[in-house]
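Anyone opening a protein record will find just a pair of labelled lines. A complete record is shown below as an example.
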Amino acid sequence: MIEEHSKWMGHALKEAEKAFKEDEVPVGAVVVSNGKIIGRGYNRVEGLKDPTAHAEIIAITAASSYVNSKWLTDCSLYVTLEPCSMCAGAIILARIKSLIIGTSDTKAGACGSVIDIVNDKRFNHRVNLFAGILEEECSNLLKEFCKNIRHKS
């Protein structure tokens, strides 16, 4: 299973690299169903001037369009950084089956670090959660981005 998760997380990392090249926070996401990517996205907040243009939201929107449904019940979402509360809410609303995270976000993570929205029993849906897939690669890309930001200042 780790090998399969690593394969798909590699695709999410490619999305994160696109964000990095556009001076966006390098987060990437892919939605996988039946061994196929049906949605992909990377952070576009700065470029689109849209605070909701997170990688997860873009990937979920693309996947929902692909399947022509608001439900992604048999899908897995691979994301390089632990989702925030907005994205965690979208994951629940889309009924995503599994969430696979590259690295945690100790400042804004809403899937176990700061809070755990996706497994809160008060909601009507919980998500199978796997964390630490290609963690070093995901973390290093974010560290490189932060280092570059500091040097530009």
The longest strand covers residues 36-42. Residues 2-21 form the longest helix (20 residues).
